[in-house]
Amino acid sequence: MAERTYAESSASSPPHDAAAPWSPASWHAHPAAQSPGWPDGDLVRAVVDDLRTLPPLVFAGEARTLTRALGSVADGRAFVLQAGDCAESFSDQSADQIRDKLRVILQMAVVLTYAAGVPVVKLGRIAGQYAKPRSSPVERVGDTEMAAFRGHIVNDDAPVPSARVPDPRRMLTAYHHSASTLNLLRAFTKGGFADLSQVHAWNQEFVATSAEGRRYEAIAEEIDRTLRFMRACGVDLSDGAPIQQVDLYTSHEALLLDYEEAMTRRDSLTGDYYDCSAHMLWIGERTRQLDGAHVAFLQGVGNPIGVKLGPGTTPDEAVELCELLNPGRVPGRLTLISRLGVGKVTSLLPPVVRAVTDAGHPVVWECDPMHCNTFAAEGGRKTRHFDDVLGEIRGFFAVHRSEGTWPGGVHVELTGDDVTECLGGVEDILEEQLPLRYTTTCDPRLNARQSIDLAFRVAELLRT
Ligand code: PEP
Ligand code: CO
Question: I need a surface site. Which of 99, 233, 357, 437 has the fewest CB within 10 A?
Fold first, then answer.
C-alpha cells in the first residue's frame, strides 16, 4: 500500500506523526465525520483495549479470496449481490431471523445464477451492520428533541433522550452479536442448509404462495431435475461436492472507526493489515471526504472495500477516490456503489464511469437503488417504491451498456421477514398498509417477495 503523508491534522487523539507510514490509528489525524460524540473518552479507550484482545471475526485469507472473486466481477465474468438490513438490531437476532435473511439472499442468488447464467458473489450486509450515519444529529419526537439514533453499536433507538446517549460498551455487544451471527451463518452455509438440493426449502410459506414464489419454485424444480440427471449419469454429488456449500461473505459500513481500528490486525502470512470485523467494508456517502478519517483508515487495510457515490460526486472526485483507495489498481479491491436516484442515474453516472475508465481503474460497478429513492409517506414513515428501485437499476444497466462497462452488481436493503416497508411490487403494497408490519430500526427494506421479484427482473436485465 502506498505510503501517504497527512498534511492537515484534526483535533482528536492519539497524536499521529505526519510523516509516519499508515497504521490502524492514522485516521485520528484526520477529521472524522459522523462521530458519535462519546461522552466518556476513558471508557472508549478501555473498550477498545478489550476489543483488541478478542479474536478476529474473519481471516485475512478469506478477505483475499473475496478480492479475487470481486476481481472476476470487475472483469465482467461475475455479478455481486450485496444485501441485508439497513441496520441490524441487537434485539432482532434470533436464529430464525438470521436463517430467513440468508434464505432470501440464497434464493435471489439462485434466480440470478440460473436465470442469467452468471456466477454470483454473495455479500451480506450482515454480522456487523450496526453503525448508522445520519443526515441530522438530532431528531424531534413530539415536542421533545433528542440525539439521533446512530445504530445499536452507539445508542438505542427508543424515542427517549436517555436511550440516545452514546455508550461505548455497545461496541463489545456488537462484537459478540456479530460473532454469534457469523457463527450461525457459517453453520448454515457450510453445514447442509445451503446445499443446492435444499433449494425448495428456502422458499418460505408466505413467499411460496405468491406469484414470485411460484416462479421461484419452477426454477427450483428445474434445478432438482438437473441434479437427478447428474446423479443418474454417475456424477458424485455427495460429501464435498461444490453444490453442498455456499460462500457468503460479510460486509458493513466502516463508520465507527474506534471499533474498526480495534478489529484491525496484522496478517501473519503477509504482514499486511486487515480489518477483521468483516470481509468487505465500505465508506458511506456522508464520510467519503478525500482528506477525511474514513478514507485515511480504509486506505491501509487489505480487505476489498467499497465507496458510496451520491449525486454530488464529481468525476474528478471519483478518480481521486480510486487513486487513494486502490493505487495498485488491483481488480476486486475497490467497488464503487452509485446511489443516484431513479431520475438522475442516466445523467449523473456516465461522466463518472467515463472518468474512472479513462483513468484506467479496474473497479466493480455496483448499483444501490435504495438510498436516493427514499421519501416520507403520509404519516411520516420513510419508504421507497419498488418501481423506483427497479427504475434506478434499469438506468444503471442502460448506462453501463452504452459506456461498454460491466454492470457488476446490486446493493439492496432487505429482510426475510414479511414486512410492509417498501411500496409496490407484485403484491402492490399501498401507503395505508405501511403501518401493518413496519419494523425496521432505520431505512425501509424490501420484503422476501419483493426481493425475489427484483432478482427475476435483474436476471432479465443481465440476460439481455
Ligand atoms: C446505508 O447503506 O445504509 C447508507 C446509509 O447509505 P449511504 O451512505 O449511501 O447513504
Ligand atoms: Co440504509
Answer: 233
| pLDDT tens-digit map of 195-215 | 998 998 898 888 888 888 999
CA 426 – ligand 2 centroid, Å: 23
Q: Is the pLDDT of residue 420 over 70?
A: yes
Atom of ligand 1 nearest to the CA of 285: 8
Considering the domain boundaries, does residue 416 fall inside one? yes
Question: Counting atoms of ligand 1 from 1, which one is nearest the CA of 339?
Answer: 9
Count of Cβ atoms closer than 10 Å to residue 382 Cβ: 17
Q: How many domains does the chain have?
A: 1
> Nearest ligand to the C-alpha of residue 382?
2
Q: Whole-angstrom Cα distance, residue 119 to residue 431?
A: 37
Report the CATH number at residue 324: 3.20.20.70
Residue 108 lies in a domain: yes
> What pLDDT, on the 0 to 100 scale, is given for residue 25?
97
Q: Give the closest ligand to the alpha carbon of residue 252.
A: 1
DSSP helix/strand/coil, 446: strand
Of 38, 6, 9, 36, the C-alpha closest to 23 is 6
Residue 14 has pLDDT above 60, yes or no: no
Distance between CA atoms of residues 219 and 222, nearest Å? 5
The pLDDT confidence band at residue 19, using thresholds 50, 70 and 90, is low
Give the integer Cα–Cα distance in Å for 393 and 335: 16
Q: Within 6 Å (CB) of ligand 1, which residues are found?
A: 86, 133, 253, 284-286, 308, 339, 368, 371, 443
Cα gap 371→344, rounded to integer Å = 13
Mean pLDDT score, 217-229: 92
Residue 25, in any domain of the structure: no
Flag whether the pTM goes above 0.90. yes
> CB neighbours (10 Å) of residue 52?
13
State in Å: Cα 311 to ligand 1 middle. 13
Note whether 34 and 286 are within 8 A (CB): yes
d(CA 43, CA 38): 9
390: its cell numbers:
427497479
In a domain, 4, yes or no: no
CA of 278 to the centre of ligand 1 (A): 17
DSSP annotation of 392 reads: H
- At residue 2, does pLDDT exceed 60? no
Residue 30 amino acid letter: H
Domain that holds residue 304: 41-463
Q: How far is the CA of 442 from the centre of ligand 2 (A)?
A: 7
The DSSP symbol for 86 reads: S
Note the pLDDT of residue 212: 87
